[in-house]
Structure formats: structure tokens, C-alpha cells
Amino acid sequence: MAVTVPDITVGVLALQGAFSEHVQLLRQAAAALRQKKGVDLKWGFIEVRTPQELARCEGLIIPGGESTTMSLVAARSGILEPLRDFVKVQRKPTWGTCAGLILLAESANRTKKGGQELIGGLDVRVNRNHFGRQQESFQASLSLPFLGATADKSADQPYRCVFIRAPVVEKILPHAQGVQTEEQEKDETVVAPSKTPGDALAKEEVSKDVEVMATLSFKTPALQKDHEHEHPGKEDIIAVRQGNVFGCSFHPELTEDARIHVWWLEGVLKAAERRQAFELADRTK
Ligand code: GLN
């Protein structure tokens, strides 16, 4: 039987949480991309549980779930360090949703020391359960301007954002030495270990500024409220990007809207092309 080798393999971390939902939306997104661009690229989407599986990936999604459990399982199964290498040393495209955003933060508060480890990669501090407990889940219809240029539907069409015990980005941290030590000294705060980017391209990506991609404001209409949702801040940061690492507080995987997956896969493709060009230039030096 002929084995088809994918041109690009994208993984979803499958230790806990909503991983199969992401795989499904990735498939939908790849089909949408094929239609839109007519590029007959073979995408491979895999569930990632081992360092070997991770090594095959050009990009990775870390799903929503429970960040403490995910980090414990990752540490126990020996994939935590390879994940840090993937995100911070090789700087491959990574996207974290909800618990995934927590794991990608360089600092997370409301966390017992020793109870949780972070991967890091985004120079931000997240507040873990900012939007309350499980029963305080809510949905909000937001326009996500970053989808504008590439999405198949218009950017004005709101995206249904599902928040479940969702974190918020409470601070954008400077990309400077010593920040982690400062953060570590705060109460109930854990930080990710620092790593050195593996080459010039990774260094360039890591040094990019954190961009705020979406906020939730007082005026956002909540579509469904299980409970009255109190909004502590005026504008809460709920999506950020730093180069090719992206994180959002909500769960796109719990909707049937593949627009963010389409946008993200386009980014993975661009990053893979950049990496190829960089390696080629390096070899011909
Ligand atoms: N706040 C949760 C955590 O700490 C994340 C919730 C979620 O992914 N729905 O992991």
C-alpha cells in the first residue's frame, strides 16, 4: 500500500482537553484553504503525545482543558522539555487556546507554586481563572479584525467566542533579561524557564513585540449567560500574538467556525516557507 507523506504536518497536543475538536476544525480549515487558494497541499494532522510525534510537526495547537493537569502529564511523559524546545528554541508556530494560552505564557498568577509548570513563549502574564469558575461560562460575539485580510467570510461577521473558566492577559511583559526573576517573586505566580533561541530566525521571532489581537469590552454583547457576568476590567486582553506564537482565552474548537484555524494554518504555511528559505540561504553561504 502506498504511503502518502504529508507536505506539512501539524500537531494538536493530546494529553488532555479538547484536542479532537481542534483536529476536526483543522481538517475543515485545510479544505477551505484548498478551495480558496487552489493549492493542493497535503496537510497531515496528528495528535501529539510523544516527543517523536512532536518532532514531525511544523506547527502545534495546545487545546483548552485544564492547564495544571496538562503540565503534570507533560512532565511525567517527558514531553514538557521538548515542548519548550519546540516553542522557544526552534520557535515553530504554536497556538494555545484557553488552558493552552496559560501554558504558553511566560508568567501565570493565581497558581500555587509547584502545582503547575509553564512552557512559555509569550511575554505576558496571565491571570488563570479571571473570568470565574466553571458555572460562570459565557459566550460573546466578537468581531476579530485580524481575520479580515484572509478569512472567507467578512471580518465584520462576528465570531462566537466561548469562555470557560477563561484566563486573561493581565500584563504584557517587557522582553528583557531579569523579567522572569521579578515575576517569580510575586505571590502565587509561576514563570517559564528561559531558553536561548536556536538560530537567527528563531531569535528574530522571539524578539518580536507582543501584539494585542482581540479585547473584550464592557459593551460586548454576551450571547448566552449562564450567570450574570461581571466584567472587572474595561478592556480585557483575550488574544495575543508574538511573532508566530498565538494565544486566545476562548475556545474556537468548541464552535464550528473554522475561520481562525484557516488564518492560523496560513501562518504555519508562511513560517514553513520562511524556514525553508532561511535554511537554504544558510547552506549556500
Ligand atoms: N482556567 C483553566 C486552567 O487553569 C483553563 C480553562 C479552560 O481551558 N477552559 O487550566
How would you describe this protein?
It comes from Didymella exigua CBS 183.55. Its EC number is 3.5.1.2. With 285 residues, the protein is an alpha/beta fold. The protein has one domain: Rossmann fold, CATH 3.40.50.880. Helices cover 31% and strands 26% of the residues. The chain has helices at residues 19-37, 51-55, 67-76, 80-89, 99-104, 179-184, 200-206, 259-283, and strands at residues 8-13, 43-48, 59-62, 94-97, 105-109, 122-127, 138-142, 159-163, 168-172, 189-191, 210-217, 222-225, 235-242, 245-248. The strands form three sheets. A seven-stranded mixed β-sheet has the order 2-1-3-4-14-13-11. A four-stranded mixed β-sheet has the order 9-6-5-10. Strand 1, helix 1 (19-37) and strand 2 (43-48) form a beta-alpha-beta unit. Helix 1 packs across helix 8 (259-283). The longest helix is centred in the C-terminal third of the chain and has 25 residues, at 259-283. It is globular, with a radius of gyration of 18 Å. The structure holds glutamine (GLN). Glutamine (GLN) is lined by residues 64-67, 98-99, 102, 128-129, 164-165, 167.
